[in-house]
Design a protein that fits this description.
With 223 residues, the protein is α/β, with parallel strands linked by helices. The protein folds into 2 domains: 151 residues, 3-Layer(aba) Sandwich (Alpha/beta knot), CATH 3.40.1280.10; 56 residues, tRNA(m1g37)methyltransferase, domain 2 (Trp Operon Repressor, Chain A, Orthogonal Bundle), CATH 1.10.1270.20. 32% of the residues lie in helices and 19% in strands. The strands form 3 sheets. A 5-stranded parallel sheet has the order 2-1-6-5-7. It has a two-stranded antiparallel ribbon with strand order 3-4. Strands 8-9 form a two-stranded antiparallel ribbon. β5, α3 and β6 form a beta-alpha-beta unit. The longest helix has 19 residues. Bound molecules: S-adenosyl-L-homocysteine (SAH). S-adenosyl-L-homocysteine binds next to β5.
Length: 223
Amino acid sequence: MRIDIITCLPKLLEGPFSDSILKRAQDKGLVEVVVHDLRPYSTNKHRTTDDYAFGGGAGMVMMIEPIDRCISFLKESRHYDEVIYMSPDGELLTQNLANQLSLCKNLIMLCGHYKGVDERVREHLITREISIGDYVLSGGELAAAVVADSVIRLIPGVLSDETSALTDSFQDGLIAPPVYTRPAEYKGWKVPDVLLSGHTSKIEEWRQEKAIERTKERRPNLI
Ligand code: SAH
């Protein structure tokens, strides 16, 4: 899979992909994440990518031309399954959506900033809009990193068996059961006996029970 992220603040995306699982996924060649700075795609003298809003009002608006030029440039080299705009009023990110996107070959994610992008970008250049929640961030970079993370960890081979996504919350419609590690007792707080019993089927049964209990308690809408 290849993910191209378009932003006017590329530095904001340096951290999330340079460590741990997301870095290993790239090192293994399972995903390629390419961050594109919008600035070089601007044709004006100062390489600006935003301008005042028509009709007045506070906040700058990202201009269509650099965005269009960048997307067109990318599309010359490959077909994209989706051109996604990160937007607070987009479709809410869920595990189900992450699963769908993990089957794609090439994705573009466009990050807005300031007041957002010129509406004509959304009307003509974008195929899908995704929100990571009902709140407003200063820019789409962190949101794009969240979406990319949720998608990349689902690509076969990215997670080792022991961290398999299949046992994570939401994957089977349930919240994950609690987990414990050594020591078996800390300050008198004990790990449930069943987990120390070595009895695989009993452990599985306990985990299933806890998952259902937790889901009823915390996310009854999933049941
Ligand atoms: N004026 C817009 C908000 C702009 S916030 C409004 O009121 O809807 C600036 C940028 O941050 C947006 O263009 C978008 O790319 C990103 N962003 C903000 N909140 C987001 C969210 N919850 N999910 C995804 N992207 C978000």
